[in-house]
Amino acid sequence: MRRLREPFRIIRANLRAYLAMNAIVFGLFFIGVAAAFAFPDLHAAQTGSLEEDGTADLVVELLGNVWLFALTILAVNVLTVALPIILLPSMVVPFAGIVLFSYKAFIFGVTLAPVDATMAKLLIPHSLTILIEFQAYILVMLAAYVLGRAWLRPATVGTDSRRQAYVRGLKQVGWLSLPALALFVIGAAYEAFELVYLVPPLVAG
């Protein structure tokens, strides 16, 4: 039961920061959407980069196996975004990952903007994916926040030693990582199901 209670205790204790992370991520996402409408070439450049780096081809190849697709999505979300962009930089420079992912949220908005009928249809089922996965990323951002705050202000975690504060901050990171990972798993499973079964009929129609 502690595994369920402790993450929510940390969230409640840092509710303002959690709400601020939501405002930052969703705010910059919608700014990115607006930017895509204002500057169509920006959206085209982002979608073009997905084709050039092989991401689009990889998605097509994985559509035949929904579970392998889900596992790949999970690995991408955790190993190429949550860890290297949010968490690891924040373990070296306080709050660095929050800044880095803020830019990523803007790029997500630019890429996923419903600039045409196809993208608009895709967003009907994909909006739930965005909501789930953004909440997972926000929890990782909150983990980066509590680590940075503990590091810079040891008294907030009941010590006057920065080393002890850092370790206690890492423990809070571990607790927050549990619900974040659960959301990443749920989001990956739904995104794979959505792209394999829900999107093709919508786009074809």
What does the model show?
The relative contact order is 0.15. The longest helix has 43 residues. By secondary structure, this protein is an all-alpha fold. Helix 1 crosses helix 8, helix 2 packs across helix 3 and helix 2 packs parallel to helix 6.
Helix content: over 70%
Give the total of domains. 1
Strand proportion, as a percent range, falls in under 5%
User: Low-confidence stretches at least 5 residues in length (pLDDT < 50)?
Assistant: none
Order of helices and strands: HHHHHHHH
Distance between the termini: 47 Å
Structural class: mainly alpha
Overall, the morphology is elongated
Helix segment tally: 8
| Rg of Cα set | 18 Å
Biggest sheet features: none
**Oligomer type:** single chain
Averaging pLDDT over every residue, what do you get? 92
Number of strand elements: 0
Key traits:
mainly alpha, single chain, 205 residues, 8 helices, elongated
Architecture blueprint of SSEs:
Blueprint (H helix, E strand, L loop, with lengths): L1 H12 L1 H24 L1 H13 L2 H8 L3 H25 L5 H17 L4 H36 L9 H43 L1
Helix pairs in contact: 1-8, 2-3, 2-6, 2-7, 3-6, 5-6, 5-7, 5-8, 6-7, 7-8
